Amino acid sequence: MTTPPILRQLRHDVWATEKVIAHCRTLSDAQLELTAPGTYGTIRRTLEHIVAADTRYLARIGQVVIEPPFREDHDVSLDEIAALLDKVKAAVERVFAGKEFDPDRFVLDTVSQRAPGKPPIEMEPWMMVTQFPHHGSDHRAHIGTILGAHGLPTPTPGIDVWAYGWEIGAIREKR
To answer: Which domains does the chain possess?
Structure first.
């Protein structure tokens, strides 16, 4: 069976976040609390935000990853973030490995908080599938910016699509 392009894209996104977490395991607690102007927040909070948002994107298309929903109101360890990312990874495989996913059907958004009196919203799932890797890439770049601004090594370019392609054998020398 041919792997759906959406699944390949989301596998790369999860892989890249795994690589950033692995890189961040070499940092001290003080370094995980670094930030820089124009970024989301601290390195730890940014990683937490990336993975928590992934769970919400999946929930919006009907794949609940964790109950109750993950709240970003407290510091968590890299181990906790990695454990949640493992759940995201499994959910991505469940949703996108089969042929049942329909990116164009409207689904009820049960995650968004609407103002009192406002009707619920529906959306086409392709929006969340597009937002998922865009959001992760954007915030992984924030982490690279924070590290670079403080003179620390960054995980890039080792998390781009080219590095992923080499690692999984999608790129090779001609035989």
So the answer is: 5-163 (1.20.120.450)
